[in-house]
């Protein structure tokens, strides 16, 4: 099939990486436009955006009203609103695509029921400090992928850890390609109130409303750059700051689950994870009383992998 793709790149303080990211997307004939959603950078990224837009016809530069800083979620939403191609792909400004990025999409999107295709991404360490921080927090980091091919409801169930085999807790947004019509028909956008995890929150909602399918999952189709300023490496797992961010993320999903009246099995799974982080934020004796009451109400909460967020803190 003939594809037309809009690649959306949110840009904030990425002056040292942006040109490589843009060039990696511009190499593809299918990519008809590269949308730079600039978010009031302070490091000269805006000037680089303007330079790239003047030199590469595919590149289009947009900013929020009055040049405001609104975060990655709002910047990606701006890109979606400005996109004109049939398909949408995402790329972080400090990452880049590999030449096989859209190989699976060309074949799989011939199936009319497929709304989105995703694959695996590799890791490149750009600084030694970034490498040490990343490796101290994550295992099996050479390839971020899911564990087996899947599509449709199996993807959604896998992301919620409701499958007999371990599917994987998420996949990277850089590896996802979507029909723009699917986003519009389901009115799906990033939650702009989430400053982090808005990508994984969107992916779970997408997996419920749309038919997602694995593409290339045994080798990288894009590369994630790891450096000193990666936000994901700065937070210690199950620290108060980590738990607060997870609480906001799962709280957003739970409100979505209630509003959309999703099946009880799924809603309860989301609730249990959300509630475990909610309990982790309580303090003093009331914390342990709240834990006991919740276990009496929902014994399953003691079996979630998140139980130690409140047992050991």
Automatic annotation (TrEMBL):
Q: Which domain of life is it from?
A: Bacteria
InterPro entries from the UniProt entry: Glyco_trans_2-like, Nucleotide-diphossugar_trans
The record's keywords, sorted A to Z, are:
Glycosyltransferase, Transferase
The Glycosyltransferase 2-like domain, residue ranges: 6-125
Asked whether the keyword Chaperone is assigned, the reply is no
Q: Which GO terms describe its molecular function?
A: hexosyltransferase activity
Q: What is the name attached to this protein's record?
A: Capsular biosynthesis protein CpsI
């Amino acid at each position: 099939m003939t594809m037309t793709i809009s690649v959306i790149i949110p840009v904030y303080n990425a002056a040292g990486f942006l040109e490589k990211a843009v060039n990696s997307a511009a190499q593809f004939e299918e990519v008809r436009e590269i949308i730079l959603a600039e978010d009031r950078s302070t490091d000269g990224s805006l000037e680089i955006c303007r330079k790239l837009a003047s030199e590469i016809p595919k590149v289009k530069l947009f900013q929020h009203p009055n040049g405001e800083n609104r975060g990655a979620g709002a910047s990606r939403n701006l890109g979606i609103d400005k996109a004109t191609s049939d398909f949408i792909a995402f790329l972080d400004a400090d990452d880049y695509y590999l030449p096989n990025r859209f190989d699976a999409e060309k074949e799989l999107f011939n199936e009319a029921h497929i709304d989105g295709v995703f694959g695996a991404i590799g890791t490149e360490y750009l600084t030694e400090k970034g490498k040490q921080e990343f490796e101290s927090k994550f295992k099996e980091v050479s390839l971020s992928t899911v564990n087996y091919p899947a599509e449709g409801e199996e993807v959604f169930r896998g992301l919620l850890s409701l499958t007999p085999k371990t599917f994987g807790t998420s996949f990277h947004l850089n590896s996802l390609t979507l029909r723009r019509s699917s986003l519009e028909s389901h009115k799906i956008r990033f939650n702009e109130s989430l400053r982090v995890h808005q990508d994984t929150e969107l992916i779970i909602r997408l997996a419920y409303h749309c038919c997602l399918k694995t593409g290339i999952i045994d080798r990288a189709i894009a590369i994630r750059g790891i450096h000193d300023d990666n936000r994901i490496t700065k937070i210690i797992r199950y620290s108060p700051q980590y738990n607060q961010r997870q609480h906001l993320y799962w709280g957003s999903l739970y409100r979505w689950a209630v509003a959309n009246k999703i099946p009880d099995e799924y809603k309860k799974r989301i609730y249990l994870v959300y509630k475990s982080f909610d309990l982790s934020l309580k303090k003093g004796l009331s914390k342990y009383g709240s834990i006991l009451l919740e276990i009496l109400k929902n014994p399953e909460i003691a079996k979630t992998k998140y139980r130690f967020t409140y047992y050991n803190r």
